[in-house]
Design brief:
- The chain is of the alpha/beta class.
- Helices cover about 35% and strands about 25% of the residues.
- It contains eight helices and eleven strands.
- The longest helix is centred in the C-terminal third of the chain and has 19 residues, at about 240-260.
- The chain is globular and about 55 Å long.
Length: about 300
C-alpha cells in the first residue's frame, strides 16, 4: 500500500491540576490515497483528539503526522474539516459561505469567473444549487450540513476530516447524506477520515474501521477491513450475510471494551473483518438495526 497519510506513533499529554494526562499513546495508522477510514470507540478514547491532530488543531507530544512525505503540524486547506455543527455564518448565504473558503484558498490563483464557477460546482456536488442564495435560517439542518461539506470540498482538500458530521440529523436526512457522501467520494476519490457513533454507517461507508481502546492512554485496538464491493446499496446490504458478519464483529469489539474497560487490548492488530462504534440510528434508516437495536447502542 502506498502511504498517503501517516499517523506515526502519535501520543499526546495534557496538563491538568492533578498532573499530566495522557490521552493518546502511540497511535499508529497508515492510510492510502482515496481510502475511507472511520474511527470508533467509547467515550474518552481520543477519536476527536486524533482528528484534531491530523487537522493541525492540536500538536502531538510525541510522534507526528506526515502527508505525502511532508510533516504537518498546523491547519491547512489540504486537510478540510467538517464538524457536527455546520458552523455557517448566519448573515451570509450558502453561496457566500462557500465563497469565503474559496477566496482564502484560491485568491490570486483563480479569476472571479473561475471562482464563481467553482463555488457553484461544489454546491451542485451536494445538491444545494437550488438554495445557494438562501441564508442558514432559511434552510433545514441537513441542508446546512450539505453547505458545510460543499465549503470543505471547495478548498480542494487532499484529506477530508469529518467529526460525526451526521450525528445531529434525523435518520432519513442522515441516510440521504450518507448516499451523497458515497457519491462524492466515488467522484472525487478524496481520502476521508470520519468519526462516527453509528455502526451501520461505518460499515456502509468505510474501507477500514479503526476501533480505539478505552482511555486514558488510548490507542488503536483493532483495524477491521470492510471488503464489501462498491458501489454499495443500503437496501441490498440489509440481508447480506457478510455485511451482518462485519457489523457483528464491530459490536463484539465495542461490547468487549465496555465489559472490560481496564483490560489490555490487542493493540495494533489488523483483523480482516469490519468495524464501527455505537449506533444512534433508527431501524427506519438501517433495516438491520432491528436485529441488534439494543446491543448496538454503546456509549460513544
Amino acid at each position: 500500500m502506498s502511504i498517503h497519510l501517516d499517523i506515526d506513533h502519535v501520543s499526546i499529554e495534557f496538563d491538568t491540576p492533578k498532573g499530566k494526562f495522557k490521552a493518546l499513546d502511540s497511535v499508529n495508522l497508515k492510510i492510502a490515497k482515496g481510502e475511507f477510514v472511520s474511527l470508533i470507540g467509547h467515550s474518552g478514547c481520543g477519536k476527536s483528539t486524533v482528528l484534531n491532530i491530523v487537522a493541525g488543531l492540536l500538536k502531538a507530544t510525541q510522534g507526528g503526522i506526515v502527508l505525502d512525505g511532508k510533516e504537518v503540524d498546523e491547519p491547512g486547506p489540504e486537510r478540510a474539516v467538517v464538524f457536527q455543527n455546520h458552523s455557517l455564518l448566519p448573515w451570509l448565504t450558502s453561496y457566500q459561505n462557500v465563497e469565503l473558503a474559496v477566496k482564502q484558498v484560491f485568491k490570486g490563483k483563480k479569476s472571479k469567473a473561475e471562482m464563481k464557477e467553482w463555488i457553484e460546482h461544489n454546491l451542485k456536488l451536494v445538491h444545494m444549487e437550488h438554495a445557494m442564495h438562501k441564508k442558514p435560517s432559511e434552510i433545514s439542518g441537513g441542508m446546512k450540513q450539505r453547505v458545510g461539506i460543499a465549503r470543505a470540498l471547495a478548498m480542494q482538500p487532499t484529506v477530508l476530516l469529518m467529526d460525526e458530521p451526521f450525528g445531529a440529523l434525523d435518520a432519513l436526512t442522515r441516510s440521504h447524506l450518507q448516499d451523497s457522501l458515497m457519491e462524492i467520494q466515488n467522484t472525487l476519490h478524496n481520502t476521508v477520515i470520519m468519526i462516527t457513533h453509528d455502526v451501520d454507517e461505518a460499515v456502509l461507508l468505510s474501507d477500514r474501521i479503526v476501533m480505539m481502546t478505552n482511555g486514558p492512554s488510548a490507542t488503536v485496538g483493532e483495524i477491521l477491513h470492510v471488503d464489501l464491493p462498491r458501489p454499495r446499496e443500503r437496501l441490498a446490504l440489509a440481508d447480506d450475510p457478510h455485511y451482518n458478519h462485519l457489523r457483528a464483529e464491530v459490536l463484539r469489539f465495542l461490547h468487549e471494551r465496555h465489559a472490560k474497560k481496564d483490560t489490555p487490548t490487542r493493540s495494533g492488530s489488523e483483523v480482516k473483518k469490519a468495524s464501527v462504534s455505537e449506533t444512534k440510528v433508527s431501524a427506519e434508516n438501517h433495516p438491520t438495526e432491528q436485529k441488534d437495536q439494543t446491543a448496538s447502542r454503546v456509549a460513544a
